[in-house]
Amino acid sequence: MATNALGLFDAPSTALTAAGELKGAGFDTPSVISPVPIHGIEEVLGKKKDVIRRFTFFGGIFGALFGFTLAAGTAVLYLHPTGGRPIIPIPPFLIITYEMTILLGILATVIGFLVSSRFPAFRERLYVPEAAVDKFAVAVSCKDAEGYRRAEEIMRGAGAEEIRELEGAD
Length: 170
Fold this sequence. Notes:
By secondary structure, the chain is of the alpha+beta class.
């Protein structure tokens, strides 16, 4: 089972220092739990990948294909030729295509938001009540006891007040 080393810090600067040192020491990207936004965290941990726009793009593409196929399929299935007009007239079908593009693009965006925010949580996440009030927490996953000792040493050197060993949570 995975072991997590979690250090509690008084100041955001010391927490960022510890997170940067842990990342530089070869650990997986540490998690920083903070009661307030921390300026400069992107420089230390790197930017997160934004997957929401991909959900929106592919939802829109699928919506356009679905909308046009729905309209064209209905026109072909229920043939009603009148006055020499084409069976699949493009201009009226573009309205349905546009509406389905918007509808499925929005639905895919909502699904992408839920996926990227990891909601609903299918596994237990780290939570420290002190980090919701006045402390800053840095957590890192350790593969073995030696990795835990290295993480503990790095966090103590950065100024951690307390270090906890948590089992199993990601």
